[in-house]
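Please, structure for the following, as tokens.
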Amino acid sequence: MGERDLPARLPEAAWTRRADLAHLVAALGADNVRWVGGAVRDTLLGGPVKDIDAATPHQPDEVLALLKAAGIRSVPTGYDHGTITAVLPDGPVEITTLRQDVSTDGRRATVAFAQDWRDDAARRDFTINALYAHPQTLEIADWFGGLGDLAARRVRFIGDARQRIREDHLRILRYYRFQARFGSALDAEAEEACAELAPMLKGLSRERVGWELLTLLGLPDPADTVQRMAERGVLPVVLPEAGAGQIAALRALIQEETRQRIAPDGLRRLAALLPADPRLAESVAARLRLSAAQKKRLVAAAARQGEPGDARVLAYRLGHAEAIDRLLLAGADVSPLGNWAIPRLPLKGGEIVARGVSAGPEVARILREVEDRWVAEGFPGRDRVETLLTERLAARA
């Protein structure tokens, strides 16, 4: 693909013809709105568009007033930073007042509202994210060569790469995420800057690091990017547990997901990057501020030892997602879980008491023993469970 293959006009797409967006544009004024960011970039690449962002020179209070006058519901989701969300019938749109950086400390920026589209573009991270499209003519404003970089599948910082990273250290991880998603041609300046300034990642909030890692790992095939992050000294800063063996395990997992047609999953791939050590997995989950459900899956994956065994038994004992993780990490078949719903043991403790067993630990023991046989026999129906209980009670007599 060459630079000439990308037009300086946004191709029409389903979202550009939305009636509710036309209503929004009419409310703000066509010359005071530009579509920007992912919607523009992804439409140029012919991909799906999830979120639509708009930029405007209107101040936040003006945006609120104009939307109200047009009968459009709005939410001041980021009022102090100039962002208002318009709640539209076919999906929300974030509208952000043009901004320019006043000061930054690598973690957060102090911004001032601006009136110049180029000033707003200059504070963005990568050239491919600084393309602005007029909502009616669809003409694209490109001040920093983003169209050429997008055509070449090159992720390049706007301006001096080191300066942009010093403004926001998270841009190192964002660079690799965008490189894994869009990149093919490497930008030498960006690569060197990320390697040189990687230690700055230590000062970031753990939640932001965790989100970026999981999002990167959830892309179709991030293995080469992760390998390069390791080689350039970036991965050891945020995930020192991931050695060469773990990166090989990530590649094997991706191959297995592809072979079995299982969708990518960032958390499962994070598990591949960690040694099989549940305590270590707990530590990493805490460090990255993962949710309780994410921690449970990560620890279950780290408890893998030897062959995973019967897929349905594994799912019953651990959970559906946890079983799929373990099976794929072991290179085992997940098809037995395809349309299978985890059953519930058709027996209650009260039924055992009704059969003459005093309430207490003995009931729990019998219930557990019947359950173990029920699982071992492949989850038979109620009649078989009653037989298993009768046999257990007879042995007790």
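The first strand starts at residue 34 and ends at 36. DSSP finds 20 helices and nine strands in the chain.
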